[in-house]
Amino acid sequence: MTQGELIDYWLKAAEDSWETALGLVKLKKYHHALFFCHLALEKILKGLVFKKTDSHALPIHDLVKLAEQAGIFLTEGQRKDLEEITTWNIQARYDTVKRAFYKKSTEKFTDLWTKKVGELFLWFKNQY
User: Fold this and answer.
1) Do 72 and 48 contact (CB within 8 A), yes or no?
2) What's the CATH fold of domain 3-125?
3) Which residues form a coiled coil (predicted)?
């Protein structure tokens, strides 16, 4: 893959994950929607890392570290939001912590956070 093709791959993969998250919200599959929100941001950040550094992103799920690797300055609010969103990757995957995540993933919580993720997603996308 060329550099341009790889950057395009990450952007399209991120957009697909974001669309999936929104579809899952409509289906009221809130915990799954939040997981895909995380995935969308992770993919868009990994694309930005490659675009800005010409190197592959670290094989991590920590959104703050990926933003730092891409050289993106985050406000304190953005940093805190990304720290919260990063927890969904773990909480949605492992049975020992899933129950608490299910309880947290209410319609109200999911609506609030999909709005925040949407704003972050657009902000990152505008940096492509």
Assistant:
1) yes
2) Four Helix Bundle (Hemerythrin (Met), subunit A) (1.20.120)
3) none
Task: State the number of CA atoms in the 13 A half-sphere of 83 facing the CB.
Answer: 7
Question: Phi, psi (5° rounding) for residue 72?
Answer: -95, 125
Provide the greatest CA pair distance for the chain: 44
Task: State how far the Cα of 46 lies from the Cα of 50, in Å rounded to an integer.
Answer: 6
Q: How far apart are CA 11 and CA 28, in angstroms?
A: 26
Q: What is the pLDDT along the chain (128 residues), one digit of tens a residue?
A: 899 999 999 999 999 999 999 999 999 999 999 999 999 999 999 999 999 999 999 999 999 999 999 999 999 999 999 999 999 987 656 677 778 888 999 999 999 999 999 999 999 999 99
Angle between helices 30-53 and 3-26 (to 10 degrees): 160
